[in-house]
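ERR on first pass: missing label on line 2. Operator R.T. fixed the label and resubmitted. Corrected input:
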Amino acid sequence: MSETVIAHLSHCFAGFPGAVLHLSAGGRVIESNGRLERELGRVLIGERFSDVIDADSCGDKWDRVLAAASSTGATSTCELVLANGDEVLEPRSFSVLWDADVSVVWLIEHPSDRRMETVRQQVTEVNSELASAQRDLVRERERLAQALADAERSNRALDEFAHVISHDLKAPLRSVANYARWIEEDLDGQLTGEPRAHMELLRTQVERMRVMIGAVLEYSRSGHTRMPPEVVDTKAIVEEVIALLDPPSSMTIEVAPSMPTFIAEAAPLRQVLLNLIGNAIKHSRRPDTHVWVRVRDLGYAFEFEVRDNGSGIPVRTQDKIWALFHTLRPRAASDGADDGTGVGLAIVRRLVEMQGGTAWVESEEGQGATFHFLWPKQTESREGDGAAAADTAGDV
Amino acid sequence: MTVVTEANPAEHYATYLEAIRTGDRRRAFQIIDTARDAGLDLAGIYLGIFQPALREIGGLWQNNELTVAEEHLATAITEAAMARAYERAFTWSTDGSRTLIAACADVERHEVGLRMLCDLLDLEGWRTTYLGSTVPIESLAAMVLRLRPDVVALSVALSPHLPRLRAMVAAIRSTLGGEQPLIIVGGRPFLDDPSLAQRLGADLTARNAVDAVRLLGERVSRAR
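pass 2 clean. output:
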């Protein structure tokens, strides 16, 4: 070999980005390109290479590889964990070459790609985080299912309670009404002045209570029976509702020209529209009442809107109107009008929420009110969703 | 005499090992699904399939038959397979009265055994928090102070990381003062020398996740 070639080779030996070591057949370091010395901060020439190997994880492995190299002469690749005193380093890969002529072993480190190492670490991290996230999801899903079951149970119990109470309250109330009437009959003509006024108040209150009990019953029954979805023409439903409410001719009810036809449970939708349009008519208190009904397609749901030009709802009571027995004008039965029982909006919210939708109101005092509700569309069969999710979640 | 026929993890172990050795994720998942369908419970799968398979993968590396990259892949597949098995086994039973925080002392290495412990405790109704290996010691101590768990579980795979584990134990002990959690430690070094646990300031150690679940069940009462 010419001197030039030797010079080139030794340059290559020194400049190689990984460790290159020349070992005796017994595993002692004869020569080194200095990489490993610099990294470990110790002299290796003359030392046994096994001194810098982590004995726990790969002492035996090194012995076997060395023995195999000198006996079979084959080139092999081997990953080793090096140790520098107490410090254990990351595993690295070496080629082991046997030079039969001079009975030496060449040990050549495969220079590692930092970026690949980083990527591998990141992947390990992400994988572990995914595994944790998957567990969190499982737990959260189970917790929700549990909460839902609890809520459904307590809803059912509440409904039963309301039903029983209402029924049981009716009988004594009927008795009170009867006794009052009998007292009046017995005292025919003798009841005057304050006692007479009190008697009248008693009758009014009994009537009020009767109406409220009826309302509780109505509320607890609402949405009790689920009907199979059918094709619903919302224009026809709204027209039907208007005919039923029979508004005075001075009122205008304007239904948007394009009203959708879709698949839904007809009965609750009809009830919701009846209550909202009925409210708009009832509470407007002006002869030129105008009511607008329209529907927007939001893709996943239909947004219904019932707007009126009535007196509006003060912002501070807008949350309260959905509660049972909340009426804007409490105990105002004296004008003789049917002032409602305060159950209409409670039923609206309940029916809409049973469909997975929501109901809300926008209003300013004196500016009319707009009631909105979302009616989710019937989704396609959910079969197969679960399997697909499980498959993705399990991916590495 | 009653004859009890039990689902045997050994039937699935060999095929699972082959699947993760060759990096075949889908096959691995399928084998675990089959094992579950055959009636094997989570503890059986963890101790009968995952744990010996990962030990064997480690052995194959020592025999120069596998690279570190292949070993990592096998571990990653097993982590995902565990999450999948956990998902199928999970039933909500937590009363939240017994709590555990788990962390590894090794840097950038995820101790599968610790994850197994958390999963099995979850199924027993414990509330567990698995922090993995990247959590700094101060954060661990702060978390223990905030959550006041009944148990802190620490693991270490490599002996050189024992000082870090000792520091973790010391940080928890000094942060909490009066009301100390039970500290359980595990991992390879404790298999060779169980008395190491006490010397490092921990309360107890266990040979495997199932043993740890049993021990903790005895030591930590449901009511607090």
